[in-house]
């Protein structure tokens, strides 16, 4: 392992001394082994408790013709439907109803839609348009995103995209199926987050002592985030319930740990920001060390932490506003009901969102000094070793 990694914080950093590499290996390897054991123990096994309906099927088609839905002031026809449409599904065209209401889809000729097919009381097939089919436009948007990342970051961008694929693979193949099958959400989130960390950080930024320092800083901050989340949910008596999603989950997955699910969401939601902050602090320490190799660990830390404070100040606002934006419809609903601000913020749902933002931010703040200190120690030690090696006298007759 070298002291730095390619381009971040610099290609010219001296290699780490052998004793430092041994120390890092002795810390990282047991953590990797523990993560692998956790994956084996918690890996989802057996059939999913989710059961598909035998009477309905989800289909995709294209609107051939449509009659407008009735206005909101006109009552819907018996059965709750108002508009009708002809939809091409493969080689056949079927008649489908278009539900009415504020949230009902507004469809026109040529629109790609999603339909639900069901069997009515007389044994006939009945179709209903339930939503627009957005898959094609989503793929186009993702392609634009990929092109933008690769155009700007080039091979580093390709590595980050592969890391993103790994993150979603862990989420979809391990975290969600394990929770569905009744595994403890908190432990699943911890093991899944550790898997993402090891895979993404090393894949994106290279295997080195420097990236190991960033990884250890991220792991320490995640542990702190989990412990603080556990403490606050206990003190505030948060159960993870109170939302429509929680109510549906409680019915679909009997016995699901909603509080553990809340904690898992805090940990996973914090992971991406922690990665960004840790790698940024590592890069700052590396560049400062390249600019002045004589700087010691304490000097590197003091200089890098100033930039870290500015970074945290901007990211904190971003995190809190992101959580506030996600909760905006709920906040608006509570405010229009004439509820006092204190009562709004202390509800089960709003308190949970506040805990998400505050606990995640505290974890983010903790990652900065921890990662900066580890990186400054490792890089300064590598420079001292390199200076000592170059200062050794040359033996007579040595080449």
Automatic annotation (TrEMBL):
Report the transmembrane regions from the record. Answer: 23-43, 135-155, 161-179, 186-207, 213-236, 248-271, 315-337, 357-380
Give the matching Pfam families: YibE_F
Q: Could you name the domain of life of the organism this protein comes from?
A: Bacteria
Q: Which UniProt keywords apply?
A: Membrane, Transmembrane, Transmembrane helix
Show the InterPro entries listed in the entry.
YibE_F
Reply yes or no: does the keyword Cell membrane apply: no
Q: Give the residues annotated as coiled coil.
A: none
Cross-referenced PANTHER family: MEMBRANE PROTEIN, MEMBRANE PROTEIN-RELATED
Q: Protein name, please? A: Membrane protein
Species the sequence originates in: Catellatospora chokoriensis
Upper lineage is: Bacteria, Bacillati, Actinomycetota, Actinomycetes, Micromonosporales
